[in-house]
Amino acid sequence: MDSITEEYKRLKEKHPGDILLFQVGIFYRIMLDDARKVAGQLGLKLLISGEADDPLIYCGFPKSGLDKYTGKLVRAGFYVAVAGQVKLENGGVRREISEVIRCSKT
After folding, report:
1. What's the structural domain count of the chain?
2. Containing domain of residue 60, as a range?
3. In the chain, helix, strand, coil percent, each to 5?
4. What is the CATH number of the domain that holds 59?
5. Residue 35 resides in a domain
6. Which one of 20, 57, 82, 87 has the largest count of C-beta atoms within 10 Å of its C-beta?
7. In a domain, 94, yes or no
């Protein structure tokens, strides 16, 4: 498992009921079970990467589509956690939850 997947899982543990939008460069990824739940609803293709015995399933969209896809998820009744990138002094990045969107479910 790569460090991006580990970081995703760490943040997902803190927000298990939310769809986690996880920034990777100029894209947001939705991974694993979240991706399976929402890809069709959002009109996104499921992608598979990694090793054959431990594939990573995800879908994604450009950073510029954040409002559009967050809106679609919220209107569909999902809670959303947005993990943006924070640049570190050493030049690396880490992700942290920058916003959680929860509207009342009817």
Report:
1. 1
2. 3-101
3. 35, 40, 25
4. 3.40.1170.10
5. yes
6. 20
7. yes
What are the b/e assignments for 25-52, b being 16+ CB within 10 Å? eeebbbbbebbeebbeebebeeeeeeee
Per-residue model confidence as pLDDT tens digits over 24-51: 999 999 999 999 999 999 999 999 988 8
Comparing C-alpha atoms, which of 47, 55, 57, 59 is closest to residue 1? Answer: 55
Position 106 in a domain: no
Residue 7 belongs to some domain of the structure: yes
* Interval 50-99: pLDDT, tens: 888 888 899 999 999 999 999 999 999 999 999 999 999 998 899 999 99
